[in-house]
Amino acid sequence: MRFKVDGRGMGAQRQKPDRHQEILDAAAQVITDRGLAETRISDIAERAGVSPGLILYYFESKDRLLSEALSFANDQFYLRLSREVRRIPSAKEQLMRLIDLSVPGLLPEYGRLDEWALWIEVWTRALHNEKMARDRETLDKRWRDSIADIIRTGQKNGEFPEGDADELALRIGALIDGLAIQVVMNDSEVTPHRMRQTVLEMAAKEIGFEVSRQELGAGAKS
Amino acid sequence: MRFKVDGRGMGAQRQKPDRHQEILDAAAQVITDRGLAETRISDIAERAGVSPGLILYYFESKDRLLSEALSFANDQFYLRLSREVRRIPSAKEQLMRLIDLSVPGLLPEYGRLDEWALWIEVWTRALHNEKMARDRETLDKRWRDSIADIIRTGQKNGEFPEGDADELALRIGALIDGLAIQVVMNDSEVTPHRMRQTVLEMAAKEIGFEVSRQELGAGAKS
DNA sequence: TCTGTTCCTGAACAGCCAGTCAAGTCGGTG
DNA sequence: CACCGACTTGACTGGCTGTTCAGGAACAGA
Q1: Nearest partner of A27 among A61, A78, A4, judged by Cα
Q2: The model's pTM
Q3: Residues B179, A174: C-beta atoms closer than 8 Å
Q4: Protein-strand D interface by C-beta, 7 A
Q5: Are A210 and A203 in contact (CB under 8 A)?
Q6: Is B88 helix (H, G, I), strand (E, B) or coil?
Q7: For tag attachment on chain B, is the N or C end more exposed, with fewer CB atoms within 10 Å?
Q8: Amino acid B144: pLDDT
Q9: CA of A108 to C1' of D12 (A)
Q10: pLDDT band, very low/low/confident/very high, at B3 (cuts 50, 70, 90)
């Protein structure tokens, strides 16, 4: 039961690739395009360019690996989002950026639809797996909190009127989830652009700020 | 490749149980409590009280069976919902009933959380299965349409002000989806009661009707 | 160079499960 | 009763895949 705790402490880690990380990445990719149910250890090994045996050398079981991969990938998304948002001064702009980043496939450079596909796999797994259920709740709370934080920021600096930031965040978060499902499924009636517009309008109405026609249409054509 | 087309045409079908139906029911139950990934043909057979071989006698493959079971179960929910709603005269009452039926676990006699769990499995499957993706879109459109129909009814008879019924239905439907996910996952911050209240408030605000304090709290305590 | 540890491989193993099949039951029909 | 077709069983099989393992490569320290 050997374990590689971390790459820490040996200085030159440029040569030695971080297998742990690489395997998690490969796993997330495979899960994204084949689906959790169709993901085999050998697929992950192939994608990572190693032998199947090595996967089990680093992770004690397939189940563990999959769980870690899902949490890991969702973490990535969250980190990128909060890093990006933090550098924007205006709360309204922050919120608009958050929305853009949440619409599957809206921004070509980011939205590879990946995150949402993984997120749905998390839901399915959480339904019958206690640990995954706890993870999901934590991740989701963090997601709502980052929306609520933006709202509170805006309320403090006068951009938004007063109101229950947590309740508002719940509403906007849920709306995003619900719409994202349809967009990620390629529903012909719910395009990324329409989703963006709908979320933005409702957020504006609920929170209480103005959106110009130009801002509404900024995401794509029309 | 024998096939039992239907029980039609032999009069006494009380004795002969409808295996097709029974198996679909059993499958939906098993999927609900074990999850699609953990569902074996033998589990379904056991639940239905028949031998595993018989399952494959009625369905050409496990895959077909599972697909049919998912669509079938979601159909059931929709039928029950529209049957119930149709007998209510007021559009506002119709909408409130629809909301109550949609909140997982709110009504003890109905909401066994089942439908939502199955619905999430459909999403996962639709992500990588073309046929399932089409089915989902159809089912989802029907769901949005039934909300839109209620809104249009209310607009025609003067209960609700004018407005784009389809857009409103999209918003309310998405909100319900997003919140239901959290409720069905037992998120400690999103209770069935809170979901009911949130959806009702937003629907009232968006569509443009009044809800009394009493109506808001009708679902449960508080 | 020698040695011990870590990393890595590919083959082998073992369990599981969808799907097949030979055989049997049951109900109706002539 | 004899026959026939639909229905049902449960044992079997063939393939797949998670996991183990014996051994080899790479590398560091002495």
Answers
A1: A61
A2: 0.91
A3: yes
A4: A 40-42, 52-53, 56-57, 61-63; B 2, 4, 17, 19, 50-54, 57
A5: no
A6: coil
A7: N
A8: 96
A9: 53
A10: very low
Q: Which residue has the tokens 């009127």?
A: A161
Q: Which of A36, A145, A182, A206 to mutate to test the interface with B (most CBs of B within 10 A)?
A: A182
Place of tokens 């994608």: A47
Instruction: Find where tokens 């025609």 sit.
Output: B156
CA distance B166 to chain A (A): 10
If one counts every other C-beta atom within 10 angstroms of the C-beta of residue B75, the result is 12
When comparing pLDDT for B4 and B103, which is higher? Answer: B103
Q: How far is CA A79 from CA A7, A73, A110, in A?
A: 21, 10, 13
For the beta carbon of residue B220, count every other beta carbon within 10 angstroms.
Answer: 13
Measure CB to CB from residue A178 to each of B126, B175, B206 and give the nearest one. Answer: B175
pLDDT digits (tens, 9 = 90+) for A172-192: 999 999 999 999 999 999 999
Q: pLDDT digit string (tens) for A13-33?
A: 335 679 999 999 999 999 999
Distance between CA A30 and CA A49 in Å, rounded? Answer: 13
Exposed / middle / buried, residue A48 (Cβ in 10 Å: 0-12, 13-18, 19+)? buried
DSSP A100-152: HHHSTTTSTTT--SHHHHHHHHHHHHHTT-HHHHHHHHHHHHHHHHHHHHHHH
Report pLDDT digits (tens) over B9-57. 333 333 467 899 999 999 999 999 999 999 999 999 999 999 999 999 9
Instruction: Give the residue from B217, B208, B212, B171 showing the smallest Cα distance to B91.
Output: B208
**Contact yes or no for A90/A153 (Cβ under 8 A):** no
Nucleotides in D strand less than 7 A from protein CB: 6-11, 17-22
Q: Strand C: list positions under 7 Å from protein Cβ.
A: 6-11, 17-22, 28
Q: What is the mean pLDDT of residues A54-72?
A: 96
Report how far residue A53's alpha carbon sits from residue B130's, in angstroms, rounded to the nearest whole number.
Answer: 33
CA distance B105 to B111: 4
* Distance CA B35 to C1' C11 in A: 34
How many angstroms separate the CA atoms of A84 and A68, rounded? 24
Q: CB under 8 Å, gap of 24 or more: what pairs does A77-81 form?
A: A77/A115, A78/A139, A78/A142, A78/A143, A78/A146, A80/A110, A81/A146
Tell me whether residues B175 and A170 touch, CB distance under 8 A. Answer: no
Distance CA B20, CA A151 (A): 53
